[in-house]
Design a protein that fits this description.
alpha/beta, single chain, 4 helices, globular, 5-stranded mixed β-sheet, 120 residues
């Protein structure tokens, strides 16, 4: 159940080779295990404005997909990752794959609608 979401997110992220593509996930080690050596994985715990700026997400030098799994939508997960979830909720998302267990969405960081974030 946990392998298919990781593999699917990696497949989707790797479709566009024009720039670095990150997979944002709560299970970075699992995604890394099934990715190639050059797969870019961003641990949800690290998602904030500073990290996204450093990775080039906010200025369009790179892009990301968000892997959301049903098993990680408990109140405990919301407590642990509330700041990261709130940050990501400020950007438009485009669903790229969805089933009953997980979704993979493109997050529109560059040119996104996040209030209060300006190019610096």
């Amino acid at each position: 159940m946990r392998i298919l979401p990781a593999v699917k997110a990696l497949q989707i992220a790797s479709q566009d080779q024009t720039m670095p593509n990150y997979v944002i996930t709560l299970e970075p080690m699992l995604v890394q295990m099934y990715g190639s050596g050059d797969s870019n994985v961003l641990d949800m715990e690290l998602v904030d404005e500073e990290e996204c700026r450093a990775l080039g997400l906010l200025n369009g030098e790179s892009q990301a997909v968000l892997l959301e799994e049903r098993i990680h939508q408990s109140p405990a997960d919301v407590d642990l990752y509330g700041a990261q979830i709130a940050f990501l909720d400020g950007f438009a998302r485009t669903p790229l794959y969805r089933n009953e267990d997980f979704t993979v969405e493109r997050v529109a960081f560059a040119g996104g609608s996040r209030a209060g974030i300006a190019e610096r």
